[in-house]
From TrEMBL:
The keyword Coiled coil applies. This is Putative intraflagellar transport protein 74. Residues 23-101 form a coiled coil. Keywords: Cell projection, Cilium, Coiled coil, Flagellum.
Length: 104
């Protein structure tokens, strides 16, 4: 019974996390729409809105590219770490083998 309740709780928790991400995305979209409505209500020239859009898009593209580079570098570092950890484990096993050889 406890395992079943725990399983149900975990599935609800996972669903809540998914919905929280979805809500955050919708909040971002709503903020964008609200900004556009504010600009239109203040008689902002459409050319100015397009300039703002292009500037923000360029900034987002640069940041996306930067994040991609960081992500790739992180993956490479994690791969190096795994490799070093494997080497350490092999050395430990070799040392254990030597110790067992001399103890026997």
């Amino acid at each position: 019974m406890y395992n079943q309740e725990n399983s149900v709780y975990l599935s609800y928790e996972k669903r809540a996390e998914t919905l929280a991400v979805e809500i955050k995305d919708f909040q971002g979209q709503l903020a964008d729409y609200n900004m556009l409505v504010d600009k239109l209500n203040t008689n902002t020239d459409m050319e100015e809105v397009m300039n703002d859009y292009n500037m923000l898009k360029a900034q987002n593209d640069r940041e996306t590219q930067s994040m991609d580079i960081i992500f790739t570098e992180r993956q490479a570092k994690e791969k190096q770490i795994r490799s070093v950890e494997e080497e350490i484990e092999q050395e430990k096993q070799a040392a254990d083998g030597i110790i067992k050889k001399y103890v026997s």
